[in-house]
Amino acid sequence: MRALVVDRSVPTGLRLAEIRDPEPAPHEALIRVAATSLNYGEVKYVLAGEPDGAVPGWDAAGVVERPAADGSGPAAGTPVVTVADGGAWAGLRAVDTALIGTVPAGADLGAVATVPVAGVSALRALHRIGALPGRRVLVTGATGGVGRYAVQLAHQGGAHVVAVTGDPETHEKNLRLLGADEVITAPRELGAPVDGVVELVGGTHLVDAYARLAEHGTLVTVGHAAQEDTTFPPGAFLGNEGRHNRTLTTFYLLACTDLAPDLTRLAEQVAAGTLDPGITWRGTWEEAAEAFDALRERRLHGKAVLDLV
Question: Which Pfam families match (predicted)?
Answer without folding.
Answer: ADH_N, ADH_zinc_N_2
